[in-house]
Design goal:
Layout lengths: L4 H6 L16 H18 L4 E4 L1 H14 L4 E6 L23 E5 L5
Length: 110
């Protein structure tokens, strides 16, 4: 967001930044985040949503699915070996079943 917010807003997209804790482990705050995203998606009726990083993708994709957003794109970076082609299994990606597209970018997945 800090580096890419202005170019996104300069295009035809609407940017809705969400503050989040990268290391937070408060389940009530996590549920509040999912609920806030759900309300945002219900209010805006987007055709597509794009989430970047693990927590935003998990919470945002779930909220988008609940709100009936027709297309979801998730992007992950820096996940390392845990999501590389040699370590992947259908079970490891089962929680992304509702996403239209999920992209993984790691040093080992070139």
């Amino acid at each position: 967001m800090r580096d890419h917010g202005a170019p996104i807003q300069a295009g035809t997209f609407t940017l809705h930044p969400r503050e989040r804790s990268r290391s937070g482990r408060n389940p009530f705050r996590d549920l509040a985040t999912i609920a806030a995203l759900y309300r945002l998606y219900r209010r805006e009726h987007p055709d597509i949503v794009h989430h970047v990083a693990l927590k935003p993708s998990l919470y945002g994709a779930l909220a988008a699915w609940m709100a009936g957003v027709p297309a979801v794109v998730n992007a992950f970076t820096g996940m390392g070996f845990s999501l590389s082609p040699t370590a992947c299994s259908p079970v490891s990606h089962a929680h992304f079943w509702w996403a239209h597209s999920t992209f993984f970018s790691t040093a080992t997945a070139r």
